[in-house]
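Lab notes, practical 5.
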Amino acid sequence: MRWVPDWTPAHLPDGDALIATAWQSAEPVADAPDRCGRKFYFIQHYESLYHGAAPRVDATYRLPLRKIVISTWLAEIMATRFDSPAEVIVTPVDPALFHRVPGEQGDGLLRILMLHHEYEWKGVVDGIEAVTRVKARHSDLRLVGFGLKAPRKELPYDEFFEDLPQDRLAWLYSRCPIYSCPSWDEGLGMPSMEAMTCGAALCTYDNGGCRDYAIDGRTALVATRRDVGALASALSRLVDDADLRERIAREGQEFVSTRFTWEGATARLEALLGGAT
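Output from the prediction step:
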């Protein structure tokens, strides 16, 4: 890795490829001299929704850069809103880090795991409300939260894990039979895929990015976006029906582990950057 003081042409080295990884770097890549290599825009979310003034961010999607996106949903947005094709490379889960870990002795409690984040669109309020509704009928249910930072105010998590080392996340995912993703929109949703790889049954809003791996009734239970009642109903099904929960978990784990591999993703990326495709 080599750092540069800024993105002006004078400080950009010669290369084979130059890749923008967020809307802020798209214009400097488009303006870079040809000696910097083929120009790409690696799009990991529809950032116009939450990460900048929409008109300015949208303008970057119209730049003459070849687009690589991490989900089919993002490719559809680029095609329909900006008349721009995009290559899809779904980010795989690293099996060395994420896999089922043998748990502790069971304590008779069923745990639902959810990512905590301060961004409103991560849907924490929705997720807590949905679990609260299910807990009204299941006193042995526990809501487990995790995130880089603990909540700023008291929230009804029964357990919370702050800034776990990455090599401990597999243990946490494996400990919780259900993973809930109440995000309104996701470019892909790596925590959901990581949890699935570790054997958790996924319950998620239809947030766009999840469509590459969350097949309703097969690899996940999918609720209508921002419909708390639908999310609570889906969670309730997984809580009430152990056979359904185990089947969803098993098929989800197999799908994510076999459909998206690092070998396939890196080979395709290398071919794109080299101009072979």
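Observations recorded by the TA: The chain is about 35% helix and 15% strand. Residues 27 and 129 are 41 Å apart (CA to CA).
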